[in-house]
Amino acid sequence: MARSIFPFLLLFLVAFSSSCVHSHEVGYMAAEVSNKGLQFLKDLLIEKAESSLVPLELPKIEKYVKIPFVGRVQMVLSNITIERVHVTLSTLKTGDSGIVIDVSGATANLSMNWEYSYSTWLLPITVSDKGSATVEVEGLEVGLTLSLTTLQGSLKLSLLECGCYVNDIYIKLDGGASWLYQGLVDAFESKISSAVEDAVSKKIKESIVGLDSMLQSLPKEVPVTNIAALNVTFVDDPELTESSLDLEVNGLFSSKDAVVLSSHYHRSIRDSLSCKEADKMVKISLHEDVLKSASYVYFNASKMQWIVDKLPDQSLLNTAGWRFIIPKLYKMYPNHDMNLNVSVSSPPTIEVENQQITATILLDVVIDVLDVEEVIPVLSFSMGIGTSTSAEISRNALTGSVKLNDFTLSLNWSKVGDLHMRLIQTLASTVLKTVILPYINLKLSEGFQLPVFHGYKLQDARILCTDSWIVICSDVTSI
Q1: Cα–Cα distance measured from residue 234 to residue 181, given in angstroms and rounded to the nearest whole number
Q2: Does a structural domain hold residue 140?
Q3: pLDDT tens digits, residue range 387-439?
Q4: pLDDT digits (tens, 9 = 90+) for 275-314
Q5: Cis amide prior to 55 (ω within 30 degrees)
Q6: Are 208 and 344 contained in the same domain?
Q7: Whole-angstrom Cα distance, residue 237 to residue 151?
Q8: Do both 340 and 302 map to the same domain?
Q9: Are residues 200 and 286 in the same domain?
Q10: pTM here?
């Protein structure tokens, strides 16, 4: 049954299923990350930074120090390693100046080895010792300013400013003479602080360069099937305000061996529908032209043609089921099975309206009788189907229902005599309403799971339809 009902399911849901998915080029998909979403991203970045910063090795530090009653002492710190960084307070702000991230009150733990050596006129030998130490850094402050732009259709992340400052350090020695502690503090406190500041700043800069490379390496076209690909080229620079980050991508489908020009479509101004009342992290907007571009690709690839040999009511595909409606058909081919050769005659017309997606589908249907040795075309109809689809998101699954708004049927040709077209149209409309659509709606009620992206999924999402736009408001959570 799945093979037979698939054509109708695809036709009714071409828009429905698609939504489960630096010139001044127009973007047909947009994402608005709210302040709540930006804070989530900031916390995620901080968490990743805490783990990626460590272990971080610092260069060896060497110095000669004068110690009272001891003399000139050579001190060396080696194997200095930052083993842990913990951030207790951080903020993120956006605006004309870019993305500003401030970290304050962070702590860090270091380990290191120490050694010293000295000699005096009292002793003709060199005195030396060595051991280990731990260092606790408190009041670590980090500030960075980032810019986010587009470069040849990709996002470019640049570091505008970066600074790191250490307020206090505490050194704990394992072993060593009593005078050694104060000597280490006096000699190396500022050097250890500077080394930590330089190492953290350098690591942050390297991480930003790596993140920028990753962003610019993201594909500009994502294969959806072996036929269609989605253009995910970024258009215009991201818009930064005090409360959100707005991104736009082209968002149109094209065949994998051709490019669909956005000038074929006419995007309306994005609706002011907001997710602020729902206090969601992200707002994802899809223009109806995204759905239209998908239908054009599949139509031009001749993929909107099917042979239907199974229906929920299989008696409809046997001449016996039509003997009172088309008597000559049954008389010429008694108890013969039939199939439907269905093809879409033009790309479906799809429009997103208030809380629904409407589609008008024009079909040519040829009824074939299956004889012992051949397939015999006996009837051909032209059919127009107008539907409306409502969608909702429940438990991270996209569900919905389809309603028949309009149905027309006309005869193209017949090899089984004259037909009572009004009666046949009434019967066909009844079959659509009582057999086909209930089956489709049953499948839709089971839902389509929303995609997971690198271990994160949408949470408590809502889907809204407004003038020409499908809008999804959602939070994001880890799986």
Answers
A1: 57
A2: yes
A3: 999 999 988 889 999 999 999 999 999 999 999 999 999 999 998 999 889 98
A4: 766 689 999 999 999 999 999 999 999 999 999 998 888 8
A5: yes
A6: no
A7: 9
A8: yes
A9: no
A10: 0.80
Is residue 465 domain-shared with residue 324, that is, in the same domain?
A: yes
Tally of CB atoms within 10 A around 151: 14
How far apart, in whole angstroms, are the C-alpha atoms of residue 33 and residue 37? 5
CATH number of the domain where residue 78 is located: 3.15.10.10
Tokens of 398: 């996209």
Domain extent for 182: 37-217
The band of 224, judged by pLDDT with boundaries at 50, 70 and 90, is confident
Q: What is the 3-state secondary structure (H, E, C) of the chain?
A: CHHHHHHHHHHHHHHHHHCCCCCCCCCCEEEEEEHHHHHHHHHHHHHHHHHHCCCEEECCEEEEEEECCCEEEEEEEEEEEEEEEECCEEEEEEECCEEEEEEEEEEEEEEEEEEEEEEECCEEEEEEEEEEEEEEEEEEEEEEEEEEEEECCEEEEEEEEEEEECCEEEEEEECCCHHHHHHHHHHHHHHHHHHHHHHHHHHHHHHHHHHHHHHHHCCCEEECCCCEEEECCECCCCEECCCEEEEEECCCEEECCCCCCHHHCCCCCCCCCCCHHHCCCEEEEEEHHHHHHHHHHHHHCCCCEEEECCCCCHHHHEHHHHCCCCHHHHHHCCCCEEEEEEEECCCCEEEEECCEEEEEEEEEEEEEEECCCCEEEEEEEEEEEEEEEEEEEECCEEEEEEEEEEEEEEEEEECCCCCCHHHHHHHHHHHHHHHHHHHHHHHHHHCEECCCECCEEEEEEEEEEECCEEEEEEEEEEC
Q: Are residues 288 and 360 in the same domain?
A: yes
Q: What CATH number should be reported for the domain holding residue 261?
A: 3.15.20.10
Q: Could you say which of 197, 217, 237 is where a domain stops?
A: 217
Please state, in angstroms and as integers, the Cα–Cα distance from residue 338 to each residue in 367, 372, 374, following that order.
7, 12, 12
Distance CA 441, CA 403 (A): 9
| pLDDT score for 196 | 94
Residues 146-164 pLDDT 10s = 999 999 999 999 999 999 9
Rounded Cα distance between 153 and 140, Å, is 37
